[in-house]
Structure formats: structure tokens, C-alpha cells
Amino acid sequence: MFAPMTFLVTVGMILAVFTAVTILMRAFGESKSTTRGGRTASRPTCPRCRQRNRRAANYCARCGKKMPAQRKR
Ligand SMILES: [Zn+2]
To answer: Would you kindly state where each structural domain of the chain is located, as residue ranges?
Structure first.
């Protein structure tokens, strides 16, 4: 009688924690991506290796390819 209850409670707690962590991670990742979303659009992506570089970068930080000229707002 005692063991099944403990098992159920343990499983329930694990599931609750897992769900909470998943939701938190998802929310954090989304907020992170949305926060960077505006910047990501303006950040140049290397045409060769797709490395995202800083806006001011003239050359790719990974492969050294010259980045295409960017329009400044
Ligand atoms: Zn590159």
C-alpha cells in the first residue's frame, strides 16, 4: 500500500519538475531568440560558412571570407 503511493508521488514530482524545466528552458530560449531576433536580422551571415559575425565585421570570424558590404540604417 505504501510503496505504490511513494512511487506515484515520485513519478509525479519528477514529471512536474521535468515539465517545469522544459517550459522554463523553452521560455528562456524563446525570449533569448526573440531578444536577439532583432539583432540577428542585422547581423551579417557569412556566405561561405554561415557564421554569424558582428555587424562591424568586414571579414568572417571563422573562415576569413570578406563579408559583403552592409547597408547602415
Ligand atoms: Zn565564414
So the answer is: 39-73
Give the pLDDT confidence of 6-53 residue by residue, as tens digits: 888 888 898 998 998 888 888 878 665 555 544 445 788 999 999 999
Q: Return the pLDDT at 39.
A: 47
**Ligand 1 center to residue 55 CA distance, Å?**
14
Ligand 1 center–CA 44 separation, angstroms: 10
CA of 25 to the centre of ligand 1 (A): 30
The span from the first CA to the last CA of the chain, in angstroms, equals 70
Distance between CA 22 and CA 11 in Å, rounded?
Answer: 16
Quote the ligand 1 centre to 65 CA distance (angstroms): 5
CB of 37 within 8 A of CB of 23? no
